[in-house]
Structures are given as structure tokens and as C-alpha cells.
Amino acid sequence: MPMPEHILVETRGAVGLVRLNRPQALNALCDALMLELGAALRAFDADEAIGAIVLTGSEKAFAAGADIKEMKDRGFADVVADDFIGNRWETVLEIRKPVIAAVAGFALGGGCELAMMCDLIIAADTAKFGQPEITLGVIPGAGGTQRLTRAVGKSKAMEMILTGRMMDAAEAERAGLVARVVPAAELIDEAVKLGERIASFSRPVVAMAKEAVNAAFESSLAEGVRLERRLFQSCFALADRAEGMAAFAEKRKPVFVHR
Ligand code: CO8
């Protein structure tokens, strides 16, 4: 992969860390950045040493949205021909390892949508979430109307999407958009610690747990429960399941082989 220009990539133990790094534009998500992000996520997904991924921005902004300056002169024919959004925005949904969004500062428009595509969000107390597209004469286009509504319910999603109002970290936690809020200075360490814990468990079991939770957004309750049951039963084919339960019975720490 050529040296990326708009992101910083590093590993911390078994956690892959991707930082959006376009400070001059508050990490606005231009096409080049999204392509680099997609490549970095795919590389971590394929890397056996990595068990979880943290995606973060800067102290000031996770991402202030799609790049408005890049978008502003595009016409309908351009965005349809290019499949604008679909072809580079949804890579994060293809990643099988858990992706944790660590959000400080602004997560607006496509930035909020990108965070919501991740498996869970941890917020700094400085985080601000919003879908301000209405103020630009568009609607959210990378899942905001669907994922925000599922996360916080219809009234709050409607209010935010119809007015462009931002939600602070405390409100986002109350509303269930974020898993928890931490002091800004501890955000990355907390997210990495969470990633390390996830990475300490059996990889196939983690992947199945992620798949089962995500199915809750794509299926009826009965279908989701059926999938969960079959995945649960599949765990009994794994040495890690035998090890986890034997370790409990023998009062020792499990040593998972699929890591
Ligand atoms: N796109 C391009 N440039 C941006 C963006 C953006 N989204 N956000 C900020 N910038 C730039 C500013 O233009 C400015 O550049 P310059 O110094 O050259 O003028 C620099 O970043 C710093 O920004 P500000 O001076 O505005 O910083 P402030 O601290 O005063 O304000 C705000 C911060 C409130 C975040 C403000 O920058 C702002 O309102 N930004 C736009 C937020 C927004 O409307 N986001 C939604 C974009 S639309 C969208 O995401 C649609 C998604 C559809 C799906 C994705 C399809 C690809």
C-alpha cells in the first residue's frame, strides 16, 4: 500500500489503530481519505496479529462530514454514475473484526454516519454528534436516517435530522448512541484497552458474536434468534469453547487457541 496521506496507521498490541488525519479540513471525508481508510481497515482485517480495530480522529474532530468542497459541484449524473457513497463508504461494514469508533469533537454528517457504521462508539466528553445535512440542502446519505433512528429512536432522530441540532456526549450516552463517555485525555487508551480485551477472546467466537448482534438490525426477531441459536450451537465445534468451559470448571484462565 502506498504511504497514506490522510490517515495515520499504527498497531498497539493486538489492536489496529487508524486515525483520520486531515486537520486542515476537520477530517472532512474526501474520496482519497475514504479509499485510504478502506485499505487500512481491510489490511487490519487480514492481519492475524490484530483482533480489533479502533478508528479515531483528532481532539477537535472525529470527522466534520463528507467533504463539502469536493461535493459541491457534482451533479445528479455524476453521483449516480460514480455510485457516490456506496463504492467507498461502506468498507467498514465488510470488516469482520470489531471496529470501535473513538469519537472526540465533531462527528457530523458523514462523520456521524461513519461512527455509526462501526460496531460501537466510545465518546470523549467533548464529542458532538449531528446530521447537519439539511442546512446544506441535502439529507444524510450514508445511513444516517436509518442508523440514527435505530440508535436513538424516531423523535430524537427526526429532530436532529430535520433541524441539524447537535447532541453532546452526555445526551448521546443517555440516548444509547454511544457505549460510554470518558474524559477526552483518556479516549484512545480506553478504546485500545477495550480493543485489547476483545482481542483476548477467541477470534471466531468474537466474529460470530458481532455477526449475531448486527443481524438484529437486518432481520425479524424470529430470524435473528434462529441465527443466534445456530451460531451458538456452532461454538460447540470449537476447541476454544471446550477450553473456555474447562477453564471455568478448573478455576483457571482459559488459553484460547484461535487468537
Ligand atoms: N467539508 C469540507 N471542509 C470542511 C468541512 C467539510 N465537511 N468541515 C470543515 N471544513 C473546513 C472548513 O471549510 C475550514 O477550512 P478553511 O480553513 O479552509 O476555511 C476548516 O475545515 C475549519 O473549519 P471551520 O473554520 O468551519 O471550523 P469551526 O471550528 O469554526 O467550525 C464546524 C466547525 C461547526 C464543524 C464547521 O466546520 C462546520 O459546520 N462544518 C461542516 C459540517 C457539516 O455540514 N457536515 C456535513 C457535511 S454533508 C455530509 O456529510 C453528507 C454525508 C453524505 C454521505 C457521505 C457521502 C460522501
TrEMBL record:
<protein>
    <recommendedName>
        <fullName>enoyl-CoA hydratase</fullName>
        <ecNumber>4.2.1.17</ecNumber>
    </recommendedName>
</protein>
<dbReference type="GO" id="GO:0006635">
    <property type="term" value="P:fatty acid beta-oxidation"/>
</dbReference>
<comment type="similarity">
    <text>Belongs to the enoyl-CoA hydratase/isomerase family.</text>
</comment>
<keyword id="KW-0443">Lipid metabolism</keyword>
<dbReference type="Pfam" id="PF00378">
    <property type="entry name" value="ECH_1"/>
</dbReference>
<keyword id="KW-0276">Fatty acid metabolism</keyword>
<keyword id="KW-0456">Lyase</keyword>
<dbReference type="GO" id="GO:0004300">
    <property type="term" value="F:enoyl-CoA hydratase activity"/>
</dbReference>
<dbReference type="InterPro" id="IPR001753">
    <property type="entry name" value="Enoyl-CoA_hydra/iso"/>
</dbReference>
<comment type="function">
    <text>Could possibly oxidize fatty acids using specific components.</text>
</comment>
<dbReference type="InterPro" id="IPR018376">
    <property type="entry name" value="Enoyl-CoA_hyd/isom_CS"/>
</dbReference>
